[in-house]
Amino acid sequence: MALYLIAFNDEWTPELTLEELRERGTAARAVIAEARAAGVFVFSDGGLDASTVVCNVVPSDGSPVFTDGPFVESKEHLGGFAVVDVADDEEARYWAGRIAVAVGWPQEVHRFPHRLAMSTDT
């Protein structure tokens, strides 16, 4: 099994009414419920609010230096995500496709490094 991030950029979402957003949310929650029932769901969230950036942190001489606001100016912003634990790329694509159809906008699929490979590196 491997962990996959299924995510979308907030810029990819169309302008929707509140009712349309509610409908898409209901559809997405139904897919997440199916992923839970299939035993592949790990975690999801509706994303991050671009207006709530707490800070950024950079290393400086072995110490963290905190500043308010985002690190770089960018229109790209995480709009929402789900993490699934599935057997392979094909199954990750399946769940990403289900989510994309449910919400009506594109999704990206990223595989996290295999947990066993990571544990042998330490």
Kindly describe this structure.
The protein has a single domain, classed as Alpha-Beta Plaits, CATH 3.30.70.1060. Helix content is 34%, strand content 30%. It has 3 helices and 6 strands, in the order βαββββαβα. The strands form 2 sheets. It has a 4-stranded antiparallel beta sheet, with helices on one face. A two-stranded antiparallel sheet has the order 3-4. A hairpin with a 2-residue loop joins β3 (56-60) and β4. α1 runs antiparallel to α2. The radius of gyration is 17 Å and the shape is flat. 16% of the residues are buried. Residues 17-99 form the YCII-related domain. InterPro entries: Dimeric_a/b-barrel, YCII.
Write the CATH architecture name. Answer: 2-Layer Sandwich
Query: What average pLDDT do the residues reach?
Result: 85
CATH topology: Alpha-Beta Plaits
Top-tier CATH class: Alpha Beta
The level of helicity is 25-40%
Number of helices: 3
Major sheet attributes: 4 strands, antiparallel
SSE topology string:
EHEEEEHEH
How many strands? 6
Q: What amount of the residues lies in strands? A: 25-35%
Structural class, please? alpha+beta
What's the name of the CATH homologous superfamily? Dimeric alpha+beta barrel
The shape is flat
Integer count of domains: 1
Family: Belongs to the YciI family.
InterPro entries: Dimeric_a/b-barrel, YCII
Protein name: YCII-related domain-containing protein
Domain YCII-related: 17-99
